[in-house]
Write a structure and sequence with these properties.
Blueprint lengths: L35 E5 L18 E11 L2 E11 L2 H11 L8
Antiparallel strand pairs: 1-2, 2-3
Length: about 100
């Protein structure tokens, strides 16, 4: 499983956010794994526990899914904002009606 918030300490300050796959660019089928969806906690300054800066807006969610294409499996993941978990799930379902979720 991917660690969504590895330490990003660096000499010249914190990066703005983190790398993210394009959620809308995926092709999700009923045979793909369920999505993992997790809220990423931010401190009062808008930083995650690994040191990346996100600002202080809506809650931040991390998603991950394993996509199968023939014999190839690829784990894709990324971040987006939503007011709550139900809204985050609805956002993914809007883009990918066949999406399923853990929990």
């Amino acid at each position: 499983m991917i660690n969504p918030i590895p330490d990003v300490s660096c000499k010249y300050g914190a990066p703005m956010g983190r790398r993210s796959n394009n959620l809308s660019g995926l092709i999700v089928t009923e045979t793909d794994s369920p999505f993992t969806l997790r809220q990423i906690r931010l401190n009062s300054g808008g930083y995650d526990s690994g040191g990346a800066y996100w600002g202080r807006h809506q809650r931040l969610y991390w998603w991950s899914v394993e996509i199968k294409e023939g014999e190839t499996r690829d784990e894709c993941s990324g971040f987006f904002r939503a007011p709550n978990r139900e809204a985050a799930k609805a956002h993914i379902k809007e883009l990918h009606p066949l999406a399923r979720f853990f929990r």
